[in-house]
Design a protein that fits this description.
Length: 169
Amino acid sequence: MYVDATVVDPHGTPVAGAEVDIWHSSPVGLYENQDPDQAPMNLRGKFTTDDNGRFWFRTVRMAGYPIPTDAVVGRLLKAQNRHPYRPAHLHALVFKEGFKTLISQVYCDDDPHLESDVQFGVTRALMGDFRRREEPHPSGAHGDAPWYSLAYTFHMEEGKAELPQPPID
Ligand SMILES: [Fe+2]
Protein backbone atom coordinates (compact mmCIF):
# COMPACT_ATOMS: atom_id res chain seq x y z
CA MET A 1 0.00 0.00 0.00
CA TYR A 2 1.18 3.48 -0.88
CA VAL A 3 0.14 6.32 1.42
CA ASP A 4 0.20 9.90 0.17
CA ALA A 5 -0.88 12.43 2.81
CA THR A 6 -0.99 16.19 3.17
CA VAL A 7 -1.13 18.38 6.27
CA VAL A 8 -2.99 21.69 5.96
CA ASP A 9 -3.93 24.60 8.22
CA PRO A 10 -7.51 25.91 8.71
CA HIS A 11 -7.17 27.96 5.50
CA GLY A 12 -6.12 24.94 3.47
CA THR A 13 -2.53 26.15 3.27
CA PRO A 14 0.04 23.34 3.37
CA VAL A 15 1.92 22.97 6.66
CA ALA A 16 5.60 22.38 5.86
CA GLY A 17 8.03 20.91 8.36
CA ALA A 18 5.40 19.14 10.49
CA GLU A 19 6.68 16.07 12.33
CA VAL A 20 4.44 13.06 11.73
CA ASP A 21 4.53 9.81 13.69
CA ILE A 22 2.73 6.90 12.00
CA TRP A 23 1.97 3.46 13.39
CA HIS A 24 -0.40 0.66 12.48
CA SER A 25 -1.17 -3.02 12.93
CA SER A 26 0.03 -5.78 10.62
CA PRO A 27 -2.03 -7.63 7.98
CA VAL A 28 -3.05 -10.06 10.75
CA GLY A 29 -4.09 -7.26 13.14
CA LEU A 30 -1.15 -7.20 15.56
CA TYR A 31 1.14 -4.31 16.54
CA GLU A 32 4.83 -5.18 16.61
CA ASN A 33 4.96 -5.09 20.42
CA GLN A 34 2.24 -7.79 20.52
CA ASP A 35 3.82 -10.04 17.91
CA PRO A 36 7.12 -11.96 18.33
CA ASP A 37 7.22 -12.49 14.55
CA GLN A 38 7.69 -8.76 13.86
CA ALA A 39 10.92 -6.80 14.27
CA PRO A 40 11.01 -4.08 16.94
CA MET A 41 9.44 -0.83 15.64
CA ASN A 42 7.99 -2.62 12.59
CA LEU A 43 5.14 -0.67 10.91
CA ARG A 44 6.09 2.54 12.75
CA GLY A 45 7.64 5.56 11.09
CA LYS A 46 8.52 9.22 11.55
CA PHE A 47 8.21 11.70 8.70
CA THR A 48 8.55 15.42 8.07
CA THR A 49 6.20 17.17 5.66
CA ASP A 50 7.82 18.80 2.62
CA ASP A 51 7.26 22.34 1.31
CA ASN A 52 3.86 21.24 -0.05
CA GLY A 53 2.78 19.79 3.31
CA ARG A 54 3.15 16.25 1.94
CA PHE A 55 4.61 13.06 3.28
CA TRP A 56 4.37 9.61 1.71
CA PHE A 57 5.51 6.07 2.30
CA ARG A 58 5.07 2.44 1.25
CA THR A 59 3.70 -0.08 3.71
CA VAL A 60 1.36 -3.09 3.94
CA ARG A 61 -2.40 -3.06 4.48
CA MET A 62 -3.30 -3.20 8.14
CA ALA A 63 -6.10 -5.33 9.58
CA GLY A 64 -8.65 -4.66 12.29
CA TYR A 65 -8.30 -6.38 15.64
CA PRO A 66 -10.20 -7.26 18.82
CA ILE A 67 -9.49 -5.28 21.99
CA PRO A 68 -8.65 -7.32 25.12
CA THR A 69 -11.74 -8.90 26.69
CA ASP A 70 -10.18 -10.66 29.66
CA ALA A 71 -11.15 -8.02 32.25
CA VAL A 72 -14.05 -5.74 33.09
CA VAL A 73 -14.34 -4.44 29.50
CA GLY A 74 -14.99 -8.00 28.32
CA ARG A 75 -17.83 -8.37 30.80
CA LEU A 76 -19.26 -5.01 29.74
CA LEU A 77 -19.22 -5.98 26.05
CA LYS A 78 -20.83 -9.31 26.82
CA ALA A 79 -23.60 -7.61 28.82
CA GLN A 80 -24.20 -5.30 25.84
CA ASN A 81 -24.04 -8.16 23.34
CA ARG A 82 -21.32 -6.32 21.39
CA HIS A 83 -18.29 -7.67 19.51
CA PRO A 84 -14.76 -6.54 20.53
CA TYR A 85 -13.47 -5.45 17.09
CA ARG A 86 -11.90 -2.21 15.93
CA PRO A 87 -12.00 -1.49 12.19
CA ALA A 88 -8.57 -1.38 10.51
CA HIS A 89 -6.91 2.01 10.90
CA LEU A 90 -3.73 4.05 10.55
CA HIS A 91 -2.58 6.01 13.62
CA ALA A 92 -1.02 9.47 13.19
CA LEU A 93 0.44 12.09 15.52
CA VAL A 94 1.19 15.43 13.81
CA PHE A 95 3.30 18.05 15.62
CA LYS A 96 4.15 21.56 14.47
CA GLU A 97 4.78 24.74 16.48
CA GLY A 98 1.80 27.08 16.25
CA PHE A 99 -0.76 24.26 15.92
CA LYS A 100 -2.59 22.02 18.38
CA THR A 101 -0.94 18.61 18.29
CA LEU A 102 -3.14 16.34 16.19
CA ILE A 103 -3.55 12.71 17.28
CA SER A 104 -5.85 10.89 14.92
CA GLN A 105 -6.79 7.65 13.18
CA VAL A 106 -7.68 7.07 9.51
CA TYR A 107 -10.09 4.18 8.94
CA CYS A 108 -10.19 1.68 6.07
CA ASP A 109 -13.40 2.49 4.22
CA ASP A 110 -14.13 -1.14 3.33
CA ASP A 111 -13.88 -2.56 6.85
CA PRO A 112 -16.93 -4.57 8.03
CA HIS A 113 -16.80 -3.03 11.53
CA LEU A 114 -17.01 0.67 10.63
CA GLU A 115 -20.59 0.95 11.89
CA SER A 116 -19.96 -0.98 15.09
CA ASP A 117 -16.41 0.01 16.18
CA VAL A 118 -16.08 -1.16 19.78
CA GLN A 119 -14.35 2.17 20.63
CA PHE A 120 -16.87 4.40 18.79
CA GLY A 121 -13.93 6.13 17.08
CA VAL A 122 -15.15 6.27 13.47
CA THR A 123 -16.44 9.50 11.93
CA ARG A 124 -17.03 10.39 8.29
CA ALA A 125 -14.09 12.82 8.35
CA LEU A 126 -11.74 10.04 9.47
CA MET A 127 -12.60 7.74 6.57
CA GLY A 128 -9.64 7.02 4.31
CA ASP A 129 -9.90 6.47 0.58
CA PHE A 130 -8.34 3.01 0.29
CA ARG A 131 -8.33 2.09 -3.39
CA ARG A 132 -7.39 -1.21 -4.93
CA ARG A 133 -5.31 -0.51 -8.04
CA GLU A 134 -4.95 -2.99 -10.85
CA GLU A 135 -2.39 -1.10 -12.94
CA PRO A 136 1.35 -1.31 -12.23
CA HIS A 137 2.56 1.25 -9.72
CA PRO A 138 3.94 4.34 -11.51
CA SER A 139 7.29 4.01 -9.77
CA GLY A 140 7.71 0.58 -11.35
CA ALA A 141 9.93 -0.27 -8.44
CA HIS A 142 7.91 -2.46 -6.15
CA GLY A 143 6.32 -5.49 -7.76
CA ASP A 144 3.15 -6.08 -9.64
CA ALA A 145 -0.50 -5.13 -9.29
CA PRO A 146 -2.70 -5.23 -7.42
CA TRP A 147 -1.71 -2.66 -4.82
CA TYR A 148 -3.60 -0.15 -2.67
CA SER A 149 -3.40 3.60 -2.50
CA LEU A 150 -4.46 5.77 0.40
CA ALA A 151 -4.75 9.54 0.01
CA TYR A 152 -5.67 11.59 3.07
CA THR A 153 -5.50 15.19 4.29
CA PHE A 154 -4.85 16.01 7.93
CA HIS A 155 -6.37 19.32 9.10
CA MET A 156 -4.59 21.17 11.90
CA GLU A 157 -6.00 23.88 14.16
CA GLU A 158 -3.99 26.86 15.27
CA GLY A 159 -3.03 26.73 18.93
CA LYS A 160 -0.44 25.54 21.39
CA ALA A 161 1.74 22.66 20.27
CA GLU A 162 2.28 20.16 23.05
CA LEU A 163 4.16 16.89 23.00
CA PRO A 164 4.61 14.65 26.03
CA GLN A 165 8.20 13.64 26.66
CA PRO A 166 8.97 10.05 27.55
CA PRO A 167 8.95 8.43 29.96
CA ILE A 168 5.24 9.21 30.36
CA ASP A 169 3.90 8.72 33.90
FE1 LIG B 1 -4.93 0.98 16.83
